[in-house]
Amino acid sequence: MNVRRRSSAAALAAIAVIGAAAAPAVAADPSPSTSSSAPSGKSGGTDGLYGSADPQYDGVWRQSLALLAQDTAGVIPSSSAVKWLTDQQCDNGAFAPFRADPAKACDAKTMVDTNSTAAAVQALWAVGGHGDAVEEALGWLKSVQNADGGWGYTPGSPSEANSTSVVIGALAATETDPGTVKKGGKSPYDALLAAALPCAGDGGAFGYPDQDGKPVANADATAAGVLGALGKGLVAEAGEKTADATCTASDEPTREQAAANGAAYLAGALAKDGHLTSALGGSAEQPDYGNTADAVVALAAQGGKDKAAKPLAWLEKNAAKWAGESGPAAYAQLILAAHATGTDPRDFGGTDLVAALNATGPAPQGVSAEDSATASDEDGKDQKDQNDQQEDGDSGFGVWWFVGVCLVFGIGIGFLLSGRTKKQQP
Questions:
Q1: Which residues, 6 or more positions from 112, have their beta carbon under 8 angstroms from its beta carbon?
Q2: What pLDDT, on a 0 to 100 scale, did the predictor assign at position 305?
Q3: Residue 288, SS3?
Q4: pLDDT at res. 212
Q5: Contact 203, 217 (CB under 8 A)
Q6: Cα(312)–Cα(124) distance, integer angstroms
Q7: Bridge partners, residue 286, by sequence
Q8: Where are the compositionally biased (Low complexity) regions (predicted)?
Q9: In the chain, which residues have pLDDT < 50?
Q10: Rounded to 5 degrees, what angle do the CA atoms 71, 291, 15 make?
Q11: Residue 251 to residue 196: CA distance in whole angstroms
Q12: What share of the chain is helix, strand, coil (3-state, %, to 5)?
C-alpha cells in the first residue's frame, strides 16, 4: 500500500537532501547498534550505508531492512545503497554482518551467517536486477542446511526458529517453495514445527534454545516462527480475518495451527499493555519496541490487521522517539509494521517514517511509477490546500516546520538491536 502523506513533494525532497547532509555522526557503540545519522561515506566501507553507527554487528541486516522498507513505500533506493549491499557478498554467496574492506576476499575467519544472508536475499530480490547475487546466496544457504531441515545463526549451529524462519522468508520471497528444500528428507517446516512448544505451560509459543539447548518460550522467536510457519518473509501483508487465535493442543500440529498457536501466545503477551517487554543486563523490564513491531507483522499476517490493532496503536503513540534515537532498522521495522496493517507509513502517529528513513542515508532515486501517480494527485490537493490557506492568511510556514521536524528525526544516538541479529545467545 503506497499512500503518500499529505505534504508537498518539494518538502519531502528537502528533507531527503538536507537531512542526509546535516545529520551529525555519532560515536560508535561497541554493541550491535544502528543510528539514524547519515553515514559519512568517506571511510570504513560505509559509503552508501544507512546510519553511521558501527556496522560491525548489523550492517547488512540494517541495510536490508532499509531497502525492504523503502520498497514497500514505493521508494526507489539510491544505487549506492544497493551497491553497498551487493559489495558485502562473499564469493561463495554468503554475507557477513559487515565487511570493512569488501575488496578483500572472504576467508575462513569471515563470520558469515544465515540471518544476514537471508535478509540480503529478500532485499536484493525486492529491488530487482541482482539475480546472480540472489542465486549464489540461496545456493550457500542450501549448502549449510542442517540435517533436521533448519538453520542456526552460523553454519553448523543448531537449528532454531529465528534463523530458520528468516531463511524460509528468503526462499518464499524468491518464489521457491520452502517445503521442497530438504536435507536428509527434512524441510525447513519440519525444523520449525520442532521448535513449536505445547499449549500447556508455554501457550503455543515458539522456543529459543537456552544455555542448555532447551527451547524456551520467546516472543521474538514466536513472531519469527509465525511468519515462517505461514511461509512469509520480512515483508508480509495482512492475512484473512480470523477469529481470535486460541492455542489448540496437538501432538503433530500443522503449520497453520502452529502459526495460530504462536499468534495466541503473542496476543496474550500483548494483552495487558499493548507492547512486549525486555530486560538487558539484569536491568528493569522496559518496552521492547522492535519486537512489538515484529509481533504486529506476525499477528496481521496470521489473522488480519484487526488482530494487531492494539500493539499498532501503541507503536503509533510511543515509537517515534525510539526510532529517532535508534535509526534505520527501527524506522524500517515500523514501516514494515505499517505495511502489514495497511497503515500509512508517511503518517504514522504523526511521523513520516519514510522521510525519516530516507534521511539516514543516500537520497533515493525517486518513487515508483504507481507511487509517483499518487504523488501527483496528492500534490494537486496540496496546492489547493495551500491556496485555501493563503486566502485565510496562512503563510505556508507549516510545510517548512514539517521539514524541520523530520530533520530532528534524523539525529540518533544508537541502540541495541532487539531483532534477530543478536540471537547468538550463550
A1: 90, 92, 94, 95, 96, 106, 140, 154, 155
A2: 96
A3: strand
A4: 87
A5: yes
A6: 28
A7: 278
A8: 24-41
A9: 1-44, 372-426
A10: 40
A11: 11
A12: 50, 5, 45
Short-list 299, 312, 377, CA closest to 345: 312
Q: Write down the pLDDT at residue 421.
A: 38
CA distances (Å), 93 to each of 11, 14, 34, 82, 166, in order?
40, 38, 25, 16, 16
211: alpha, beta or left? (left if phi > 0; alpha if psi -120 to 50):
alpha
**CA pair distance 379, 373, nearest whole angstrom:** 10
What grid cell was written down for 195? 521448535
Please give the grid coordinates belonging to residue 212.
Answer: 542448555
Residue 235 in contact with residue 122, Cβ under 8 Å? Answer: yes
- Identify which of 248, 243, 289 has the alpha carbon closest to the alpha carbon of residue 270: 289
Q: Which amino acid is at 205?
A: A
Per the structure block, which three cell numbers stand in for 103?
575488496
The whole-angstrom separation of Cα 360 and Cα 51 is 5
CA atoms of 115 and 141, how far apart (whole Å)? 10
What span, in angstroms and rounded, lies between the C-alpha atoms of 252 and 194? 9
User: Is residue 135 within 8 Å of 141, Cβ to Cβ?
Assistant: no
Judged on CB neighbours under 10 Å (0-12, 13-18, 19+), 69 is: buried
The predicted structure's pLDDT at residue 402? 32
Contacts of residues 307-311 at CB distance under 8 Å and 24 or more positions apart, as own/partner, are 307/242, 307/244, 307/245, 307/263, 307/267, 308/337, 308/340, 308/341, 309/341, 310/270, 310/271, 310/274, 311/270, 311/274, 311/275
362: cell is 543516500
| Phi/psi-derived region of residue 350, left when phi > 0, alpha when psi is between -120 and 50, beta in every other case | left
Q: What is the pLDDT of residues 225-269, one digit of tens each?
A: 999 999 999 999 999 998 877 899 988 899 999 999 999 999 999
Q: How far apart are CA 266 and CA 264, in angstroms?
A: 5
**33 in Cβ contact with 51 (< 8 Å):** no
pLDDT in the model for residue 302: 97
Q: What is the pLDDT of residue 122?
A: 98
Q: What is the DSSP string of 317-369?
A: HHHHHHHHHH-HHHHHHHHHHHHHHT--GGGBTTB-HHHHHHTTSSPP-EE-H
| CA torsion, ordered 260, 263, 265, 268, to nearest 10 deg | -120
- pLDDT value for 52: 87
Q: pTM of the prediction?
A: 0.78
Amino acid at 355: A
